[in-house]
């Protein structure tokens, strides 16, 4: 995945809008992350004095499993980022750096890193997901379980006696 900016670098323009559809070819990465291979990269490259900065976002689709009901669903994720464009990498810098070589930016590794950093730990299929019944395992989004609604933990039965 290459982003060509050679014309922009040699021009007097101070900004370049970026709207690129990128495709990840790394099958192992796609399998590991359960990611759709098509990614949308949007943003803007700005020339400020002698430096170049990229402010943008990536959008991608991932197959996720709901943390409550365990159903699989497609989740769209958007993550914003800011990066400095450099001719040679400074290993001691804390900011994200994109290496410009011959007027091109290789996007493979930076996009993978942004995806890893933006993937959620837990996902919900919807905000009001009811989950599964802890007793019978029924998906409460699809049906009503027939379990007794007043199930209590037997360890707390002695506390009930105190209320009598």
Write up this protein:
It is a single chain. The protein has 164 residues and is of the alpha+beta class. The chain folds into two domains: 2-127, no CATH class; 130-164, no CATH class. Helices cover 18% and strands 38% of the residues. Strands 1-7-6-5-4-3-2 form a seven-stranded mixed sheet. The chain starts with a strand and ends with a helix. The relative contact order is 0.16.
Question: Could you give a quick summary of the protein structure above?
Answer:
The chain is of the alpha+beta class and 164 residues long. It has 2 domains: 2-127, no CATH class; 130-164, no CATH class. The chain has helices at residues 6-10, 27-33, 108-118, 157-163; strands at 2-4, 15-23, 38-48, 51-65, 72-86, 96-101, 104-106.
Considering DSSP H and I runs of 4 or more, what fraction of the residues is helical? 10-25%
Radius of gyration: 24 Å
Q: Total helix count?
A: 4
Beta strand count:
7
Number of domains: 2
Task: Give the topology.
Elements: E1 2-4, H1 6-10, E2 15-23, H2 27-33, E3 38-48, E4 51-65, E5 72-86, E6 96-101, E7 104-106, H3 108-118, H4 157-163
Parallel strand pairs: 5-6
Antiparallel strand pairs: 1-7, 2-3, 3-4, 4-5, 6-7
Sum up the structure in keywords:
164 residues; alpha+beta; seven-stranded mixed sheet; 18% helix; elongated
